[in-house]
Amino acid sequence: MAFVDLPAGSGFHSRKEPFATECLNPYVLRNDFPILSSSVHGKKLVYLDNAATSQKPRIVIDSLNRFYRETNANVHRGVHYLSEKATFAYESARQKVQRFLNASSEREIIFVRGATEGINLVAQSFGRDRIGENDEIIVSQLEHHSNIVPWQLLARQTGARLRVIPMNRQGELQLDGFESLLNSRTKIVAVTQVSNALGSITPVKEIIRLSHERGVPVLLDGAQAAPHMPVDLQELDCDFYVASGHKLFGPTGIGILYGKAELLEEMAPYQGGGEMIRRVSFEETTFLDIPHKFEAGTPDIAGAIGLGNALDYLTTLGMQRIAEYENQLLLYAEQAISQVSGVQIVGTASEKAGIISFVMDSAHPHDIATILDREGIAVRAGHHCSMPVMTFLGLPATTRMSLAFYNTREEIDTLIEGINKVKKVFE
Amino acid sequence: MDEISELYEEIILDHNRNPRYFDRVPDTANHSAHGDNPLCGDQYSVYLNIANNRIEDVGFKGAGCAISKASASLMLEAVKGKSIEEAETLIENMHDLLTGEAHHHHDEEVDVGKLDALGGVREFPMRVKCATLAWHILNAAIHNEETAVSTEK
Prior knowledge:
The complex is a heterodimer of chains A (427) and B (153).
Chain A: H1 26-29, E1 39-40, E2 43-44, E3 46-47, H2 58-71, H3 81-101, E4 109-112, H4 115-130, E5 136-140, H5 149-158, E6 161-165, H6 175-181, E7 186-192, H7 204-213, E8 218-221, H8 233-236, E9 240-244, E10 255-259, H9 261-266, E11 277-280, E12 285-287, H10 301-317, H11 319-338, E13 343-346, E14 355-360, H12 365-374, E15 377-378, E16 380-382, H13 387-393, E17 398-402, H14 409-426
Parallel strand pairs in A: 3-15, 5-6, 5-7, 7-8, 8-9
Antiparallel strand pairs in A: 1-2, 4-10, 9-10, 11-12, 13-14, 14-17, 16-17
Helix pairs in contact in A: 2-10, 3-10, 4-5, 11-14, 12-14
Chain B: H1 3-7, H2 10-17, E1 31-37, E2 42-51, E3 54-63, H3 66-79, H4 84-99, H5 128-142, E4 149-150
Parallel strand pairs in B: 1-4
Antiparallel strand pairs in B: 1-2, 2-3
Helix pairs in contact in B: 2-3, 3-5, 4-5
């Protein structure tokens, strides 16, 4: 298929078995990302805000352009040539997601706008039928607002209650605290796989095991995990999983919801409209089977195809190799940052993904981010849409750098120089 | 001078390190308001004693970045002792200075003295709200508005 063609000069040679022993070469891979060679304020761009969104390889950018130039048509309705081609490309993208996450069937993959919409869909379609007054929904202290607010809305509608898995000062979830929350009123557990604010990798296998022992389904927020480590949904055995395309080096506006087929089949539609019905009359409407039951209206066809290409790209690099490379770079960055006096790393969980939050004695995170920006360095400053984490730690804000496989040690060195410039201004 | 040095002029750094009237509530305070910038978490409360149409005493509390804190500190220093009308004119002039908007009724630049140092934010559009926050709160405090002010309406 044309959409998966890799451009010449990609940072790899074989599209089949990734050579697991060979390390990634970020210096070569960077050439696949046009924006990474740009300048900001006259300085070379150092993009360390990958937890907010990742940059896009040329193969993704070009596939959007190519779709609109060569294939554009609506899906699942026309009998004409272009519609057939567009439908095939869109459904192929679904298969790519299924393979990337190792779901057992592509019927379990629903295209949504992003992880946020995926959680809202589950909260409403699963929650409103199955969660009632005095029932309990368990989330964790580490959650992004997108895995808190949809459940709060549901709780308000149904009279259910939100319970919170506690964390410690290192940013680790407390499993004993979790176990004591589980009871007969618990109807769902929704927890992140990686904290977007601190980078902690959470003990999801244990959480899933303990929940399933009591028959409670688990939703995993994989927005920060899927782009950075291998995810095997059949092995994890979670009941729902969400991820965002734009953090997976794909386009914005496309996301993934996985649900176990037996759960999705029983759930009511989330939105009504075209593309999701079998037959409509004013008396009764019947719906299509999954996954289309949950995809009302014309979907983001180009976005799904672009995401499919991004996943091909990641698969070729190998998620295990990406995880190993990013872990090495994380250790390098942690050591470098912790050696700067007056800087403290926030979040020191024993297992971490490529995210470092830090604070400085002399400067507020916003002042740090402004000065770094003038050095060409993109980081995030603020509460990272995780205000409960910040409240727990007693911090109004942190500065956060977040890695991708195209980041280099030289960029970390540039960050350290930038932090030293901040010190020079403020000390 | 590069833009960073213009943003963080010595006077800004000084008022950030040693904010004036900070962490104090005047015993005689009879006007106050709270405000925040929910996008970045900066939040301050401003306390005033207003007597005979004049701002007699001032104080503020809260936390935030260097720009927001220095702006609050410089502001209170400037308005202490001023009449309400004078303070209101200054609020208007500072709004124009910080946002770069020239109101049609101002034909020429107004001299705001050392508050001019805050004008460096104009080169940093994402930081303008840091500088304007304190002035919004002051305006609310003068009018004793019950509702907390916010940079996000």
